[in-house]
Amino acid sequence: MIRAVAAAAFASFFSILGAPPSGASANETITVVTSFPEELTTRYEREFERGHPQIHVQFVWKQSRDALVELAKPDQGGADVYWAPAAANFALLRDRGAFRKISVDRVALPGRLGAQQLSDPAGLYEAYDVAGYGVVSNPSALAAAGLSAPRRWRDLASPEYARQLAMPIASKVGFSPALYDIVLQSEGWDAGWRLLGEMAGEATLLDSGVAPTSSVREGKAALALTIDFFAEIAKANGAAVEMIYPERTAFLPAHVAMTAGGKHVAAAQAFIDFLLSTDGQRLMMERDSRRHPARPDAYQSASQGFADPFALPASTLLDYDSEIGRRRPPLITLLFDLAIVEGHAESAELWRKIHDAEKKFAGNAKAMEALDEARRLGGFIPVSESDARAAPFLERFARRDAIDPQQIAQWREEIGAARRQARDLVKSLEPAP
């Protein structure tokens, strides 16, 4: 009799608070490896456990490199779920057999944005959010300078914009190699580096992720390159800033996956289901996180002015090649240091002289031909586009400390020689004393 009463009480308890997910045991703990900030993970832990009181979520915070080491261990180090903005990690771990297939409602979660693939086609990891890359602006500062909002990456190379611009340093700011790769994929490898060189020549370079948005918020710059949630958080908290998505930009996903070695499969699937549910996706749009859901129906409750990537014009979206993109950051970081950060003051002087000469010699075909060559040399990079698309070549730069120092020295010299030639060309246009 006592057992019957206890069983009835247990059943009644779960009828009120929610039954365990199919196959899950009562009072389970799942381990989630993540790099998302605590204010976001705490919100998800609270809301998930409210609906699933029999499952406790234990977060283990690991940045990208440390997470890859941990999840490469046998049984993925005891983790059940990996949840992070680390596209390269997910692809590597998938290829190593570290994930098991998860169940996803493909009607609600398209796994694509325009022509861009967001999720693993085999279902081994799924897009959780999409982060947009572009320009944070101070509309009042732009108006005071007589400038309209830029619409294309190319706009930022003109001196009127570049002198008002702040840019993150690729080796210092985690999101910036992906941002610069978007520009390179949008404009082409050689033209993209020339554009980045011209933009950066007269811009201010910054060394932290929040600095671009802060510089615009504080009036130190009118424009800055950034990832959108920094700008959106600032705006939601009262800053007079706006996020601009130039034509042919991209929204890159964070992902979630279930580990192959996890011991709590049903509970892990329940947590992933919550992350990807409409209610779960809405949690990321709150004022202290302001991330973009990967689920289109979540935007029905978005605040006014919060961009819906799934409703943007097709011209805004680049068909971003994520397989190339996940391999390029180390090379982009190295080249950005060599070509843009080193000798930045001298580059700024070169680009000022090129821009001033273009105004002075407008209509002079011979002078403009020389200035076109100076522009090419000013943005020269000693790596071909074919190499920059070749996986074996890119893998040589996966670790900065493993790169041949003679290679770095050679590239530094080639870049320096190109800049000297550019300065000589500009100087040749000056009248003889």
From TrEMBL:
Keywords tagged on the record: Signal
Name of the protein in its database record: Extracellular solute-binding protein
Entries under PANTHER family matching the protein: SLL0237 PROTEIN, THIAMINE-BINDING PERIPLASMIC PROTEIN-RELATED
Species, as recorded: Methylocystis rosea
Signal sequence segment: 1-26
SUPFAM superfamilies (alphabetical): Periplasmic binding protein-like II
Gene3D superfamilies: Periplasmic binding protein-like II
